[in-house]
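FIELD: query
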Amino acid sequence: MQLERDAFLCRGGIKMASHAGLVYVLKTKYGYVNEKGEFVENIEEAQKIDFMQFGFGPSAYEVYKRLGYKNEKLMNEDIEFHTVIPSYDSRLGTIENLYQLMGYNYRASCMSAAEDFRRFNLYLYQNFRDYEKVMHKKVLEFYRKRETFDSINNFDLYVIPNRDSYQSGEGKVDCFYSEIGEIYCYSLPLKNLHLETYFSIDQNWNQIQNAGLLEYMKQKLKGKEETKIYGVKQDEDLRVYMQYPDTNLITYINECIRDYYSEHEMHITRMFGSYILLGKESGKLKALKATPIPIQYCPLMIKLLKEVGGEVAERLLATLQIEDQEIQTKMMCHLIDEVVIKGGYFDTSRPLNSCEANVLFGASETMSSAFQDGIIDAAVIVSNNLGTIITTNDSNTQGAVKRMTGLFYTSPSKEIIETAKKSGIIPFYPYTATINQLEGVKKAIRLGYKKIAVSVAANDNILHEALKRLETDGITIYKFGLCSTGIDSKTAKIMGENADVIWTCASKNVKEFVEPNAIAQVGIKIPVHIMTEKGFQIVRSHLMRMGFDGSVVRLIKGSEKPVFLNERGKIKVLQKKMLYDCIDCPHPCV
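FIELD: result
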């Protein structure tokens, strides 16, 4: 190859063409192309082509034709370039990288690489191969003095200084050094049920979903030779070690994990303060376990269940008054099976756009009104089979939750994830359906949304303090506290100090620590407490659509605070001191 015919590039003190030295072969779906235009399996038998012969312009198919070859079954998309000898510039970059692996800064590595290129005559490819082996030994000696991160197939893996990991979907990619050079690791946090948070249950149940995942992934990755896979490991994360970070392979790994979790579907929901574990038995979704029911009565739950289940719901609801806890929890599971599951709450083919308001003062209903009035441009909520999602308009906000009451764990579904994307919904964890509202809000901010509503439930209400800290640089966050039955006093205090709108549910601590500090209230059966002027702004939008005349009200704590009530389709405003004790409220409070 004549260096004089190259278009020169100045780099690191050496003048060379960026693709000088590059040799490639033509690779097709039928095999490599040899000098007769035939297809061969062995790359060594393929015709070697000097890059400078054709330059940057033509496609692989055009190069094939210029060489005088012709095969009617070969199309443009069937043929590609495959490098067999890297260019001078690529070789120089490889040397720079080896120096940087040993802690050299960029400038020093460039100067050292340029000097070595001249000194050892690395224009000759065999010289370069020999040099690369020597340098690799030096780099390995450098790392063997350091602490190992892990080992795979008896290769010790070392952390590379100043080499940051980067996000790829729900996981991340890290690069490590080993005796065979750089190895990349894609790691994805696995779901963990943490059932002990909700149930008195053997912690082995926590491993139900992940027990067979490792073997499942090993089987799925067999035959994936496009990128060499060195091994697969599982603990809190699933880790796949590979030759280079192939985007298509990472997507495939994610999809396999999604499908595995979908096949081993599990959910945790809540009703009447009871947590219910749902899972598959013989391929059918069922309620597997429920905690004792802490409250005897909730008007909202009764209303919603009767709307879906009719007489069946009425009969089952009546049985929940039995005091025997074992019988009671069995009946709660039966209620979930017969009314909730059969009512379509977990139907993965359900639509996700809806204008139907299910309750007067619900969180999704309030958010939907705020979308219509331009108060918010995104909402971070939770949905069955989707986990944390970002909704972008009124109909997909209402449709994503419908009559859902509380969701604390869920499993992904490919079908409904596709429905969500078509509906303008952004699933934050499309492969695992993880629930993480704080990260969901951060994602909405990164996507450019400025006016965000977010709902958190039960013990996650402790996140309100962290959510409030995200309100910087023109970001406004409307923070909704939901499903507060049974929360402790610490969480209630954090809600009262940081949330904008709080639903009482049957919470003793919300009544004690939140209600006295509210500046307005909506409803009396299950009071919605407005804690800030910002909270009133978003609630007022919903009240206006329900018949509120928009008159000025005085936002104030104590007995004179305004209370908004629905009376024959109109909103009536009274002072707190004018109200009688509620006779149709959830009880007892816990």
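FIELD: remark
Confidence is low (pLDDT under 50) at residues 1-15.
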